[in-house]
């Protein structure tokens, strides 16, 4: 009986061991199968080991710029095919926007750069891009501007300080306008403002730029520019102080020069064919602003914009003059003609002061006439009434009234 019990126990143990081995073998086969099915993805780990905040870009298209990824100092991000990121194997350049908070870069003026060294991306593996303070970068707007993440040169920064006795509006250097936030667009006495400077044509950061500072005096609405230019250079901080003894030139009347504290306003009225300036006229008939196309502008052309007055056209405006002055303007006809009829007429307070005949008026000609102090209602006419031929149009430019005393 004891032998039978022992034999039965051995049989049960054998069955148990066989079952355990079978389960273990099955699990092993399942693990192998799982490992075979596990898919590998191409990915990139980007580490910002620098001391500045940056934004990562995978390219310079507008879409890629708009989809910048924030990468603050000391952080990292992972770009992976698994998460839907488009990643191609091989050599690839990356781009970043450096947002330094030092005085030169100013947070409103970041630098967009290409990381100088390409990253070799291996398919189905993770590749690491480590950005440090010493990582070499190249300004994407100016390939000559190279440096490290920490010292790449930014636009020049210009600070304007108003130490004069006047408040100003329209303070501008190139395209940048300076003003006191507390006073809206006014740069008040003892206030200052600063801006990063861009090229006024391309909108890109400048290397070296010369320009005048423009501003208007709030007390009498006189507009000036500095007599001398201001020079700014990339990566430098500059300052300019407006004082009462700053030498200035009156805008559109450059014979009027002096110091800011002593110069008197002499320009009373000015119209150069600009659409905005047309608002100065109290009445306009058959006249409009004309702008030459760039390809039609000859070198040294002074009349890129002007007023085109059609037959029977008229311009009217009124000025109140504190003292005697003069009215001056340039005129021409688009075609040569030997027609001897009156073509251009000007009246002041309904009194004729100018009558010019049409013949040979195809070149720009300067006309000047004196005006007396007091209220002057000026009207300029195209006296020709025949609208059948375009050559009957009259061109006018740089209409201005100046004090002569």
Task: State the major sheet.
Answer: 9 strands, antiparallel
* Average residue pLDDT: 82
Number of E-state strands: 32
Query: What is the first-to-last residue Cα distance?
Result: 145 Å
Number of helices: 2
CATH topology name of the largest domain: Jelly Rolls
Question: Spans of 5+ residues with little confidence (pLDDT < 50)?
Answer: 103-108
Could you say how many structural domains there are in total? Answer: 3
Structural class based on helices, strands and sheet pairing: mainly beta
Q: How is the secondary structure organized here?
A:
Layout: H1 2-37, E1 43-48, E2 53-57, H2 62-66, E3 69-71, E4 76-80, E5 90-92, E6 95-99, E7 111-115, E8 119-121, E9 126-131, E10 136-139, E11 146-148, E12 157-162, E13 168-173, E14 176-178, E15 186-187, E16 192-196, E17 208-211, E18 213-217, E19 222-226, E20 230-233, E21 237-242, E22 247-250, E23 257-259, E24 267-271, E25 283-291, E26 305-321, E27 325-332, E28 342-348, E29 351-357, E30 365-371, E31 374-382, E32 394-403
Parallel strand pairs: 1-9, 12-21
Antiparallel strand pairs: 1-4, 2-3, 2-6, 5-8, 6-7, 7-10, 10-11, 12-16, 13-14, 13-15, 13-18, 17-20, 18-19, 19-22, 22-23, 24-32, 25-26, 26-31, 26-32, 27-30, 27-32, 28-29, 28-31
């Amino acid at each position: 009986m004891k032998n039978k019990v022992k034999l039965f126990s051995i049989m049960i143990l054998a069955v148990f061991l066989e079952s355990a081995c079978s389960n273990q073998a099955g699990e092993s086969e399942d693990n192998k199968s799982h490992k075979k099915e596990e898919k590998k993805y191409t990915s990139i780990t980007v580490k910002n080991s620098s001391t500045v905040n940056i934004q990562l870009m995978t390219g310079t298209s507008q879409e890629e710029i708009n989809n910048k990824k924030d990468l603050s100092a000391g952080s990292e991000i992972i770009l992976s095919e698994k998460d839907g990121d488009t990643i191609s194997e091989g050599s690839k350049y990356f781009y970043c926007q450096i947002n330094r908070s030092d005085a030169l870069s100013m947070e409103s003026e970041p630098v967009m750069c290409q990381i100088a060294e390409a990253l070799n991306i291996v398919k189905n593996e993770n590749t690491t891009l480590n950005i440090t303070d010493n990582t070499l970068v190249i300004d994407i707007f100016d390939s000559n501007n190279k440096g490290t993440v920490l010292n790449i040169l930014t636009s020049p920064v210009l600070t304007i300080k108003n130490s004069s006795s006047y408040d100003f509006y329209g303070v501008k250097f190139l395209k940048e306008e300076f003003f006191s936030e507390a006073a809206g667009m006014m740069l008040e006495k003892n206030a200052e403002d600063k801006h990063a400077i861009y090229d006024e044509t391309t909108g890109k950061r400048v290397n070296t730029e010369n320009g005048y500072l423009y501003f208007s005096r709030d007390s009498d609405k006189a507009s000036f520019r500095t007599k001398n230019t201001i020079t700014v250079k990339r990566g430098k901080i500059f300052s300019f102080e407006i004082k009462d003894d700053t030498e200035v030139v009156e805008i559109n009347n450059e014979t009027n020069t002096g110091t800011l504290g002593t110069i008197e306003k002499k320009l009373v009225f000015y119209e150069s064919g600009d659409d905005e300036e047309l608002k100065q006229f109290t009445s306009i008939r058959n006249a409009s602003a004309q702008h030459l196309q760039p390809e039609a502008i000859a070198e040294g052309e002074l009349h890129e914009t002007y007023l085109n007055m059609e037959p029977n056209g008229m311009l009217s405006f009124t000025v109140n003059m504190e003292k005697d002055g003069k009215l001056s303007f340039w005129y021409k006809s688009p075609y040569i003609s030997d027609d001897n009829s009156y073509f251009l007429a000007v009246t002041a307070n309904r009194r004729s002061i100018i009558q010019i005949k049409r013949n040979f008026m195809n070149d720009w000609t300067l006309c000047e006439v004196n005006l007396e102090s007091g209220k002057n209602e000026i009207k300029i006419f195209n006296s020709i009434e025949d609208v059948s031929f375009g050559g009957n149009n009259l061109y006018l430019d740089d209409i201005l009234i100046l004090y002569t005393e």
